């Protein structure tokens, strides 16, 4: 009996829906001639051949529609398995308004609908389904989860026991799993390792809360949307089904969430299955980690740094073949510009921060691809999100992501189903119909009529499903059309399965309001076609009630390469795969070895396996298998800050840059801190200083004879400046180190007194006093400070970079060149030639052309790499390299051992929507468009437009643009006009004299090989260095092979909300080969684990000669890494303060140049000491003035 809704209740539903909607998708119709795609990998096989006519049809009415029942179009799932043990996989489709259907596979892709005779007709609103042998009788049973769809149906879950004669008996009530909240999907696993299968059930029950309303998280089990864990307590006394007990509260399953996807995997490899739940709306995803004692702990916040905002389906698999399981969740970001702009309104940074204040983890609007990076030094897994780098982050209104090797090349590809019958997120339509529906003159009938008119006005969102080919190195190529995904439909649940047993994986989708799709994979059409597409399929036979070996793990080795699978059928979206595991092997014609670990813990190894067949592994043939003891690898670093009393927490005060400049790409108020190293109290031990944030004192750390540290703040007063670059140098030539501190950030206006830099004079004992008379006026927000005797007069001169003026962005901030003449003298214009260099982030003094004059290289945002050549003390000769980027940092070293200095420049990286190339540069168009004295900048990037034609489009959504530029409201009075506007269209409303343009044609972090005479060969750093913004960098020979390696830190947590924080870096070691090439060294070998928003990076030495790395992180703790064995037998050379560089001569005839820097890397000044090993014969050391001396070892 349906309850009538009042007008006020309908009004509430309409308002809630409008608040929930963030995106829009429109349809671009096209006619496809499928006859021209005969060579595609997949062919959609007609129902006239398969006899599969299932269609998940839904008919709207005044009580069943998207306004009143938002989840009506979430669709149905697919489950596959061999229900009659004939070796062929059968198909079960869950139906919403229609009954679910079971199709028996008769071979050659022909099926028979046996639903009626099997006893499977149901009238409930079925959501997910699993085919599983729940009672251990070797016949597959069927579990179906059901929803009440907001009270319209009975949410009673179904458990169909296979009677072994192609009929089933429903025993959900008797088994104890029928009555739950609205259920989405079930997943079976032996979570307590007692030999039988337990049930984890995700839910999505409607309640009285607006699901996107900010409120405290419900983490104590009080929400009706809390998931459910049923423990299998063994078989019923009378009956062939198990009895389940709800143990959710006892097990710690307590977090709320609108669950849409679940994947079970042993993510930390501790032999206990864990649960990942992808949740819709405001609720975060949950990662329940199995504690091994029957309880679970949600560890998603410590393992994963950000999530999708509206997570739909989820899958987990080892797609990069490193032995660790990666995770993909999908969201609703459309692949092309117009749909993105139509669905996106105001971007509220305040709401984003408020959510975090309420305890929510960061969420962003796109698909997420989380790479498992192994275990941290603390023994916990950690992930890096790389969806934008991989190219899979925008696939429309998506449902089911699936990892599988569709072309049998040994790498898992990605399938994504998508589509929605009603495009409810067109903001123009929403605004119009909100006014119509909420007209106060409407009576109830008019109200309902307006809702129906609105529904009729909505177009459908029929989309092509996506297929991404795995190219290796974390890159996927969109191969959807090339592989046969031509049909535009609304697909929800999906499975991959070898329906015709030919050795490749077919695809099946459950579609709304149209027949299901059966995609036949034609990779292997016959035995002649199998060459190069080899495979191995594996069936598992468990010994107990877990007959299919669910939870088993398989490691497969071919030609020293690994593939890893974990057998967990439920994956994607409300669907479950069959129990046959599939490995693609490419051209490999033999498997060297295969190891299976059963849930019971016993293992077995099989060697030399023939390919292109199905093998069966039996648990009863396994035995206790001991892994070979792993070879102990030498760890490069240990984190030692606590044991050395190095305690500092950089504490940023909240400040919202976007309130004043909504169109900037990041906050500029959180760019510090910097670190500088030197001996402060003349005890021949190195000390250091770290800068503070606004209203936080920086701190000195003095090294004791025992190698520990005592600290002292630089000031006890109320400090208004934000410390940026910091530098120890002997300003007054009295033999001790003085301290220069740059004042920066964006909290103040363009000429604030709080941008005045500070110089602190050392009394030789480590006591510092600020001098107010030495430094000229600096009234622009600064970044770096670096020193050198550029004029060869015997003292150190300074370059101070200008970083930002928030309301004038991207106009250049003023930079300074200070000549040391007892007092510093501003010689910027007379010696450097200009002060407005750009948005400078870093600089380095270096002798580029080996003429013994210090040149200056400056890098920054929207800047080319800029070299000021030193011509006998004049720096007016400017050389700009053609690489314009969002450069963060620069460091230098002779990486190819050829006697000159090469350079590494840290950039934004490739894991971002902001990408620029030579062919498709990223631009910013800027000017005072409002005539209010402030500069407005519109960033534009190339995107797919109508008919997939790539054009340059503005990045900001319409509301964000108009928030800062009200001038454009008259041209773009609705979302549709703006969504169709290219950057060329935007510029048509401006006069050319009203704006300027800066561009970025390079976002990769780069290595520049010095080829003499200011010529360079540029190459990209390895892909691991492109996963985020690079800030800290330091060259050092870590493995004692006489070649410089590279230590890197990075990330940026302060971006605008649409992009989301860059957090994929965890610290990176690149080992150099001496020829300018680099290779990543994995964390277990390095111990160098640096999560969070890392900035400066500096080296220093302990009294025993061991090197230590200091890592400063914005708004976080300072880290200190003690180098281990490799640094203990090195000799230390301490240069004089006016030494510029040295040439190292090795006993084998090798030669390398090393410069001694006062500032290198982002806001960093490392020790100027040089460590050398026993392979060094002698050094030739040069002063700034060219004088040389030889030092023998």
Automatic annotation (TrEMBL):
The answer to whether keyword Signal applies is yes
Q: Gene3D superfamilies, alphabetically?
A: Integrin alpha, N-terminal
Say which domain of life the source belongs to.
Bacteria
Tell me the ranges covered by the ASPIC/UnbV domain, including all copies. Answer: 549-616
Q: State the UniProt keywords alphabetically.
A: Signal
Where are the membrane-spanning stretches?
A: none
PANTHER family named in the record: CARTILAGE ACIDIC PROTEIN 1
Name of the protein described by the UniProt record: Repeat domain-containing protein
- Species this protein is from: Fodinibius roseus
Q: Which PROSITE patterns match?
A: PROKAR_LIPOPROTEIN
What Pfam family is a match for this entry?
FG-GAP_3
Task: Using the record, list the residue span of the signal peptide; answer none if the entry has no such feature.
Answer: none
